[in-house]
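ok trying this again, last paste got cut off
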Amino acid sequence: MRDGITRRETRASAAHTAMGPMTVPDDELAAFEARLLADVIAGRGWPHVLAVLSRAADRPTRLIGSHGGTFVASDSAGTTTFSTRSPRAGIAAADHDDLGLDRATVASIFAARRPANVTCRDGFAAVALPIVNADRRIGLLLLEQPAPPSAHQLMAAARLPLAVAAAHRDATAAVRAGRGTGFIASLRSGERLDEAGLARTAAYWALDLSEPYAAVAMSCSTATPAWTTAASWIENPVLVVGRHAWTLFTGAVDAQLTRVRQRLEAITGSGTVRASAGPTVTGAAAAAASFALADLLLVVAEERGETQIVYDRLGASALLLSVPAADRAAFVRSQLGAVADRTDLVDTLHAWVRSRCRRDDAAALLGLHRNTVGHRMARAAELLPAGALDPGISPDVIGALRTLALDRREP
């Protein structure tokens, strides 16, 4: 017997015989299910279940999340792969995952609570079996079609093991989340840091706080169970409070932020998640400052309508964030005066700077006639301190414009 069924039945399940489609005897089917359950209880997860099922049924299989992204796929030889956009199990790929299904199709199958024939984005034709645990929608188990009745029997027998594997995964995630919550909360507060203890906890996550890292802040448009679950599946330690979450990234922060944000939105919905990263720092004592700036940038991203902002990519604008808001406002008022209250003049000055003080180029940027730009610049010169635009726009005025753009969350 291999994987709970005989080699004879495995071969027979792949084809019809002269007597018609073969089926798996009840005792062998029960043994197959029991074998999978034992493996799952021992800690083997979804990939193992799909690998065993694919070998036994001699058909490729996939596990599709409730959002349509691919958790894991297995060929008929039992070789499993995760979604190309999700190298680790936990959060599946976004809507553009070419192995998955659209959300509407997934929702309709769960609503019907029965198998249905589907075609994935890459042309993979399969029967989809909804996997649920009470009211929790775990995913869709896909088996390539056409397939004989024996393969469908084996597929049905894998339903319970997959549900148990999901429950085990949830329990493991809860333990990890508990450790991560305290770890991130301590780093964010910056108070009474037990650096030795933090280092041990960081090692649990394969992190080294003596190496460069950046604090990350994220928010979802609404605090939903889907958001809480999705955020808890982030590979690094995470703290989730309401619709906000915080974690740490190392390496290529910008690329990681994009990948994780897209994976979260595969669960919460497109355009629902915003993210930011503070400056790259080293050592536990520097974490609080990085988190504080990540929080500020998250506010900027939300008010600008941007999906993500990374401190290390802001350039000179990042320096302004280290200046207290009251001091920034005072600087802007001292350099721009009444111009700061005139959006038309501020926009014109921005275009004047970008065009290197060339009227025609500034007019093209604004979509205005060159004479209109000339009139606005003349009015700005009257309101600005003497000499601010003569012979060229002064560095102080340029700095004030950049500060104003940051504080007003202008693009």
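PB: full thing came through this time. The first helix runs from residue 7 to 12.
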